[in-house]
Amino acid sequence: GQNIDQPTEMTATEGAIVQINCTYQTSGFNGLFWYQQHAGEAPTFLSYNVLDGLEEKGRFSSFLSRSKGYSYLLLKELQMKDSASYLCAVRDIPTDKLIFGTGTRLQVFP
Amino acid sequence: GAVVSQHPSRVICKSGTSVKIECRSLDFQATTMFWYRQFPKQSLMLMATSNEGSKATYEQGVEKDKFLINHASLTLSTLTVTSAHPEDSSFYICSARDGGAETQYFGPGTRLLVL
Fold first, then answer.
1. Which residues in chain B are contacts of A41 at CB distance < 8 A?
2. What is the pLDDT of residues A29-63, one digit of tens each?
3. What is the distance in angstroms between the Cα of B85 and the nearest Cα belonging to chain A?
4. Which of A24, A36, A98, A104 to substitute to test the interface with B, most B CBs within 10 Å?
5. Residue spans of beta strands (DSSP E) within chain B
6. Chain B residues near residue A38 by CB distance under 8 angstroms
7. pLDDT in tens, B38-78
8. What is the 3-state secondary structure (H, E, C) of A10-51?
9. Residue B100: what pLDDT?
10. Mean pLDDT estimate for chain B
11. Contact status of A9 with chain B (Cβ, < 8 Å)
12. Are B68 and B88 in contact (CB under 8 A)?
């Protein structure tokens, strides 16, 4: 079966660092994506990992370990506008479908 | 990144009517588009994969006769919710993949309310 797990909710303080974990068990794997979704809006692309290691993009970084079925999204220098849901998604083989986790709702407090 | 549009952004309809939602890739050609549904405080659930020039592939539990998908061109896919009922009220989101790219880009979503 397909299973992608993320924490349901997290809280953090403005200026801090937060790590959102994602574990997956899927029949196929062709990349892992992180999306940000603000309430009432569509998801926006944050990062893509297909090889093991860390991908850094400004304040956001994403890590992947394929052998462990594990990824995390690291957000640095948190801002109030980072309050949103963060969705982890695995691309399936051979269908190319994205299989989404339940999402992690992050609240950033002043 | 690539731009995907959806129309309408919001629609309210009476029970029993049909609603058509359009998804367009504005600056790239998308051989494949995906349709998702999202209920409040839940994640995205894939409904179907739309391939240009061929029949859509529906996920298990999604009624193909109720949710009609047409991918008539490389930049347009439509989802028609036929005989809508209140339980069809949801946030419908399409995404498209630029053939040579790895990323799916999402449209802004359509909020459907069936009274």
1. 108-109
2. 889 999 999 988 889 999 999 999 999 999 999 99
3. 21
4. A98
5. 4-7, 10-13, 19-25, 32-38, 45-51, 57-58, 67-73, 76-81, 90-97, 104-106, 110-114
6. none
7. 998 888 999 999 888 888 999 999 999 999 999 888 899 99
8. EEEECCCCEEEEEEEECCCCCCEEEEEECCCCCCEEEEEECC
9. 65
10. 91
11. no
12. no
Q: How would you class B70 by CB atoms within 10 Å of its CB: exposed for 0-12, middle for 13-18, buried for 19 or more?
A: middle
Tell me which chain B residues have a C-beta less than 8 angstroms from the C-beta of A103. 43
Strand partners, A9: A105
Q: At A7, which amino acid appears?
A: P
CB contact under 8 A, B44 and A100: yes
CB contact under 8 A, A103 and B43: yes
Sequence-distant (≥ 6) Cβ neighbours of residue B101 within 8 angstroms: B2
Render B9-32 in DSSP notation, one character per residue: SEEEE-TT--EEEEEEESSS--SE
- Mark yes or no for CB contact B43/A43 under 8 Å: no
Interface touch A42/B109, C-beta < 8 Å: yes
Rounded Cα–Cα distance for residues B90 and B99 (Å): 29
Per-residue confidence (pLDDT) for residue A34, from 0 to 100? 96
User: Dihedral of CA B60/B53/B38/B97: which sign?
Assistant: positive
Residue in A31, A44, A87 nearest the CB of B43:
A87
